[in-house]
Specification:
The protein is mainly beta. The chain contains no helices and 14 strands. The protein starts with a strand and ends with a strand.
Length: about 240
């Protein structure tokens, strides 16, 4: 249940009809659980997500006998979630356990709604020698008619992966290169038992490749080393 910090109700009559206006400032805290199984990437992940937000609600309406109807607007400010995640990733060789912490927040969201409540709920107070009962409005029913939200922002605080087994390197690399123009070199590469001409791939996590051209092994005097990402082929110009 939201924690109410401030609440003010004002009642008045317009042409004999009871009317009301209410203002409420509240804060909410909730905890969610998320489980994710990704068969494509062979990953199992679990998260416990605490979320906190502040809200301002303004409502107005009329009382018509045993019914109360009105319209309200609710603004939710800085809905913030901490998302710690633990996962086991089998697509990496060796398999790894990873810990990740994200912060996610929505600066502002607005909801416009209509509501109604019916006065049919019985409430009683009991004493040692008696009791008092009265009829009051039941919980109101809200029907949203419009909503708006600013984009969600997500920031990664850290990600740590620990291999379950000792890491094993990808093995010797293979390279196939050719000069396709006067100052252009095209190349394909691989590791382990791959044939670079076939462009296969093994499930070993490669962070990135660098492609260099030099007059001796390890040199880059002909073409400076270029980050090729995780591609297994590429072209260097202006060599």
């Amino acid at each position: 249940e939201p924690k109410v910090f401030f609440k003010k109700d004002i009642t008045f009559n317009i042409m004999g009809i009871p009317c009301f206006i209410g203002i409420e400032v509240s804060g909410a805290f909730k905890v969610g659980l998320k489980l994710d199984l990704n068969c494509q990437e062979l990953t199992i992940a679990a998260s416990v997500i605490p979320t906190m937000a502040f809200a301002l609600a303004i409502e107005g309406g009329v009382e018509l006998g045993f019914m109360k109807v009105g319209v309200g607007i609710k603004c939710t400010i800085m809905e913030t979630s901490l998302i710690p995640e633990a996962s086991v990733r089998f697509f990496m060789l060796p398999p790894s356990v990873c810990l990740k912490l994200d912060v996610e927040f929505i600066p502002l969201s607005v909801e416009l709604y209509v509501f109604f409540a019916i006065k049919i709920c019985l409430n009683c107070d009991f004493w040692t020698f008696g009791m008092e009962c009265w009829i009051e409005f039941c919980g109101k029913i809200q029907i949203p008619i419009f909503s708006f939200s600013l984009p969600k922002f997500t920031f990664n605080i850290f990600t740590i992966c620990i291999p379950l087994l000792p890491a094993k390197g990808p093995g010797p690399g293979q390279l196939s290169a050719s000069q396709t123009a006067e100052h252009t070199i095209s190349a394909k590469w691989a590791f382990g038992d791959q044939d670079p001409q076939k462009g296969g791939n093994q499930r070993i996590k490669i962070h990135h490749y660098e492609l260099c051209v030099g007059s001796t092994p390890g040199a880059e005097d002909l073409c400076k080393c270029t980050d090729m990402g995780t591609e297994t082929s590429g072209t260097l110009d202006k060599c």
